[in-house]
Automatic annotation (TrEMBL):
Protein name: Uncharacterized protein
TM region(s), chain numbering: 12-32, 39-62
Keywords of the record: Membrane, Transmembrane, Transmembrane helix
Lineage summary: Bacteria, Pseudomonadati, Pseudomonadota, Alphaproteobacteria, Rhodobacterales
Amino acid sequence: MKGIIPPGLYLSMIALFVFSEAITITLGLFAVQQRGRRFLMVWVPTMHAYFPLAAIASYKAFFEILTKPFYWDKTRHGLHDEAAEPEPVSPDPMI
């Protein structure tokens, strides 16, 4: 890239990248300053891994909507799915 992009622009792009990452971390830390959420501060740097994973998930969803438009990729969510199933009704009201 150094042969294609002029050195001044190259350094400016690096500075912009570092600045934008610093802003992302700062905003993440600011967002979890409230009482009851401060334990999340240690997880703020992991947002850099979350964003690419979210992009991959969006590409997967886009591919699925093109290839299988009526397919719904469902995920079980613990107790919520178990509570949604109706309980069997006994034919004898005394039971």
